[in-house]
Amino acid sequence: MTRFMVPGISLESSRKAALLSETRTGVYAAAGIHPNELCPDSHSPDITLDLPEILLHPRVIAVGETGLDFYRDRVPEKLQIEVFKEHISLAEAFGLTLIVHSRGAEGEVLDVLGDDVTVPVIMHCYTGEDDTARKAADRGYYIGFTGALTFRKNDRLRDLAASLPADRILIETDAPYMSPEPVRGRRNEPSNVRYIADIVSEVWRRDPEETAVTLMRNSLRAMQLGPDRRTDLVYLLYGNIYMNITGRCSNRCRFCIKDRTDGIGGYYLAHHCEPLEERLDSVIGALTPDMGKELVFCGYGEPTMRPELLKRLAGSASERGFSVRLNTNGTCLSRLSPGETFELLEPFDTVSISLNASGREEYRSICRPVDENAWDRLIEFIELARMAASVRLTAVRYPGVDMESVKELAESLNLPLKVRG
Ligand code: SF4
Question: Which one of 112, 129, 383, 421 counts the least CB within 10 Å of its CB?
Fold first, then answer.
């Protein structure tokens, strides 16, 4: 086994799951509030307001457990549904997989989810009706089977597993509960998942190895860890919140991190396609200023490549009380007029500009801009930016960069310079 998913069932256990995920490679966490953990007297849907801080953890890759449990009849259905809806909104905002508990409420769960959830949904530990499972699979949800699939009298569940599309099936332990045969009655643990895989292999009438490969592929897809991996659009580093709004850039710097790795700090930041505006709107709406010192607009690319979006997001963040910073290569005057650029900068408290060279030729050689006059635009941008916000410069140590001259230039501009690398 190479990867584990540890879901939370309350705020406290979700925080613990996030901490546990830091202890070794391959451990991931989910954060959520299980319907049975809700306290009817003291909880309201506001309880989910504390979840985004946990969801920002790089190894928290799913929202859950969440869902509905009408079997126990302890927490009012209305409260459960409202809290479940908040979880769905958070999963969609952060682009995270949703792990859904449903007991005595499978149909209601599908009603609340609706037809157009934009993230993978896992019907966790499924033991409900066949028709509901088929409807869920038709919608593209994953059906998770636990030790219940191995229980001797559970032919009905095995028939269901045999009849569902193979690419919708997941196996899980739900440890420490639901121990499968032949260890039923003992404390369950992740390694017991092999007994469930054996039963899937039997009902599929497939070779165990082929079954294992299919189930692993399904899990990676469900958790968005496969080839089309989910991009983290928001991440927490150095006490700041970073918004990763684009993968495009106007330069091709020789030292660019994008050429060496897909992310930093445990976050996956490479883009398969440009992030949707609605997703960025939702995720920023779930954040609050107390979660970080600054809200930094960056990208795994150059944020000013999306100027209208950048202006709108930064403007609304500023209105909501965030201290807002722009990290830029400073070449947007190659594409925007000075007036448009000044307007773009208005919401920002701070602008951090990558200088990275001491002159035109050095810049061309190291940063390889699309616009051959980019260096001149960069110097003009610095002058414009300092009229709008507090400006600082950065430079990366790299062979061919005359760092002493870069420092002299920063000094002559009377601006602080941070040298990196
Ligand atoms: S400006 Fe930044 S994102 Fe663009 S190529 Fe250079 S280092 Fe990479």
Answer: 421
Write the CB contacts of 46 (distance below 8 Å, at least 6 apart in sequence): none
> Diameter of the chain by CA atoms?
81
Pocket of ligand 1 (CB under 6 A): 249, 251-253, 256, 258, 301-302, 329, 354, 367
Q: Are residues 35 and 64 in the same domain?
A: yes
Quote the DSSP letter at residue 246.
-
Q: Which residues constitute the domain of residue 213?
A: 4-222
Average pLDDT of the segment spanning 165-179: 96
**Model pTM greater than 0.90?**
yes
Taking all residues of the chain, what is their mean pLDDT, rounded to a whole number?
A: 96
Beta-carbon neighbour count of residue 310 at 10 Å? 25
Strands (E), 304-412: 324-328, 350-354, 390-396
Residue 228 lies in a domain: no
Sign of the Cα torsion 83, 97, 289, 266 reads positive
Q: Which of 258, 366, 393, 420 to mutate to test the pocket of ligand 1 (most atoms within 8 A of CB)?
A: 258
Could you tell me which of 252, 258, 259, 260 has the C-alpha nearest to residue 363? 252
From the CA of 354, give the closest atom in ligand 1: 1
Which CATH number fits the domain that encloses residue 186? 3.20.20.140
For residues 213 and 193, membership in a common domain is answered with yes
Cα-to-centroid distance, 311 and ligand 1 (Å) = 20
**Together in a domain, 60 and 158:** yes
On whether both 67 and 135 belong to a single domain, the answer is yes
Residues 179 and 322 in one domain: no
> What gap in Å lies between CA 209 and CA 21, rounded to an integer?
28
Last residue of a domain, one of 222, 249, 283: 222
pLDDT score of 420 more than 90: yes
Residue type, 195: Y
For ligand 1, atom 3, the nearest C-alpha belongs to 301
CA distance linking residue 295 with residue 324, whole number of Å: 5
Average pLDDT value for residue range 168-194: 95
- 200 CB-near residues (< 8 Å, 6+ apart): 145, 149, 161, 169, 171, 211, 215
Using the mean position of ligand 1's atoms as its centre, give its distance from the Cα of residue 256 in Å: 5
Residues 285 and 375 in one domain: yes
pLDDT score for 43: 85
- Co-location of 277 and 340 in the same domain: yes
Residue 229 lies in a domain: no
